[in-house]
Design goal:
The complex is a heterodimer of chains A (302) and B (225).
Chain A lengths: L10 H31 L5 H4 L5 H37 L4 H16 L2 H15 L7 H27 L3 H9 L4 H38 L5 H12 L2 H32 L10 H8 L16
Chain B lengths: L12 H30 L4 H16 L2 H13 L12 H31 L2 H9 L4 H16 L1 H14 L11 H11 L3 H30 L4
The chains are: A mainly alpha (302), B mainly alpha (225).
């Protein structure tokens, strides 16, 4: 494979590349050897610590219920945040100043604040002001925090989706006599949602990752939290971390792959007129940038 | 109204935010260095390095930061004995481990941002650089990276703002930064709303100037093509 940066290697370059490969391989092997050796010393490689994962007990008692809670919180947040985000995004583009400015303020405010603060605040709010039973409160707090943050991120994605549509779309709608609300609901929004689908799916990765915050700060029984109970039972700190990390990686990798498949598919179909907003859009809006939109986006979501 | 603030002297409100700022700055410097190295690996002619860079980015990006931070404390420190040069000082150890976790996580995003910047440099420039006999590392150092950095100030600003917000996760391993102090205050004091507003304001103060400054800088320094 050749790249922009280097040519097809000649004899000297080939020798040099082999040398670099060997040096890098040795460094990597040393690191892995150290990791292996330390794990061996601390007894983390004992088969008895890994064995629980081959039996059904560890999965049915700890990991699967944890995963179920992670997915439940993520799904709930998405389902609530999506319509809320659509409303906020549309409100931000309203012709009326008294709608546009408050909506803009809400979106910018919640994007600028760490999700963890929102979760902590929501948790304390529920303790003081509502009668939600204490075993359900963490779920409520986590979902509230995620909804507030992600609704405002989704609002920006929706807005970008609508702005990416050609102006002729709404002009044509006006020409045939549709009202503003009709134009939005039957012309602009459906197209915008299609264009935004990949970005929306990528946002799910952010939500899934953020549920772990509730596990460690609020006692929400998601995957990271059930991991610690599991590790306390079997004394398998490193194995349990590896298994949980792999579950998260697989889960998010599936979502990312689905998003980029969707993006390719939407780009290919000739029917849509608007642009397709990919995962990099998510990265841009997640960061709550305050000084206008930036150019080239980086892939992925933070 | 603000009387309760004087009850908190270790850390004080400003002290906690100062820890947040320190976490952000140190992690930003660390992840910029490690992220640039990863990006250089990902575009290098050595297949093994390319493979390592790709694997690192795809794995780390998909693990929740919370899992990484908790792992630095329970896994790295307790099992592997990585104490970052502070085996007995609990506070310093937690702080340094948090920086390590944040760097490991954020570098993946920095790497992707820089790589997208490298892709914006026209092919002809690298070809011209090769034609006058520059080596790969010279092309990268003298021709490509300087332009790439100028075009990714915007995306890097996004990463920096996200990092500022992500430092709150360090509260999970007991680093006395803003989120941990807010948790403590909000549980002890009656003015939930006021405390929420104070900390929200603090983060707006931290992120707003960063966004504005770097946004302005990215427009000013953008390579005109």
């Amino acid at each position: 494979m050749t790249s922009v940066l280097y040519d097809a290697p000649g004899p000297r370059a080939k020798r040099r590349n082999v040398l670099f490969s060997v040096v890098f391989f040795v460094l990597l092997a040393l690191l892995l050897w150290w990791v292996w050796q330390t794990m061996d010393d601390k007894g983390q490689l004992e088969w008895s610590l890994w064995k629980p994962f081959t039996t059904s007990e560890a999965w049915t008692t700890y990991l699967l219920p944890g995963l179920a809670d992670t997915l439940k919180a993520a799904a709930l947040s998405m389902v609530i945040a999506l319509p809320l985000g659509a409303v906020l995004g549309i409100a931000r583009m309203s012709d009326h100043r008294w709608v546009r400015i408050p909506a803009g303020a809400v979106v910018e405010f919640f994007r600028a604040i760490p999700v963890l603060l929102l979760m902590l605040f929501a948790n304390e709010f529920y303790v003081r002001s509502t009668g939600i039973p204490s075993d359900e409160r963490p779920l409520y707090a986590v979902v509230t925090g995620l909804v507030l943050y992600n609704a405002s991120v989704l609002a920006e994605i929706v807005r970008a989706g609508i702005l990416s549509l050609p102006k002729g779309q709404s002009e044509a709608a006006m020409a045939v006599g549709l009202r503003k609300s009709q134009t939005m609901s039957s012309i602009l929004l459906p197209q915008a949602v299609t264009a935004m689908l990949p970005a929306i799916v990528s946002q799910l990765v952010v939500i899934v990752k953020d549920t772990a915050l509730g596990g460690v700060m609020l006692g929400f029984t998601e995957l990271l939290n059930t991991r610690s109970t599991l590790a306390a039972n079997y004394a398998n700190v490193i194995p349990s971390f590896i298994v949980v990390a792999v579950i998260f990686i697989v889960l998010n990798f599936i979502l990312t792959t689905f998003a980029s498949w969707l993006e390719r598919r939407l780009r290919r179909s000739k029917r849509s007129t608007g642009a397709v907003l990919g995962a990099d859009k998510v990265d841009d809006v997640n960061a709550a940038e305050v000084g206008g939109t930036y150019g080239t986006g980086a892939g992925g979501s933070i | 109204m603000f009387d309760f603030l004087s009850d908190y002297d270790d850390p004080t409100l400003l002290g906690a935010f100062w820890v947040t700022v320190q976490l952000t700055v140190l992690s930003a410097i660390g992840s910029l260095i490690w992220g640039t190295m990863l990006a250089a690996m990902r575009v290098s002619p050595v297949p093994l390095m390319r493979g390592f860079g790709t694997a690192y980015v795809n794995i780390v990006r998909n693990i929740p930061l919370t899992v990484i931070i908790v792992f630095t404390s329970l896994g790295l420190a307790n099992i592997f004995g990585v104490t970052m040069g502070a085996p007995d000082d609990f506070e310093a150890k937690a702080f340094r481990l948090a920086v390590l976790g944040l760097v490991a996580y954020t570098a993946a995003f920095v790497c992707e941002a820089i790589r997208s910047g490298i892709n914006t440099v026209p092919v002809g420039q690298a070809e011209a650089a090769r034609a006058i006999g520059l080596s790969f590392s010279q092309i990268l150092r003298l021709v490509v990276l300087p332009q790439a950095f100028r075009s990714v100030i915007g995306p890097l600003a996004n990463v920096l703002i996200a990092l500022t917000k992500n430092t709150t996760v360090a509260a999970a391993i007991g680093v006395a930064e803003a989120a941990l102090l807010m948790k403590e205050m909000i549980e002890n004091e009656a003015q939930t709303l006021l405390i929420g507003a104070i900390f929200a304001f603090g983060f707006v103060v931290l992120t707003l100037p960063t966004g504005l400054l770097l946004g302005w800088l990215s427009k000013r320094l953008a390579v005109k093509r």
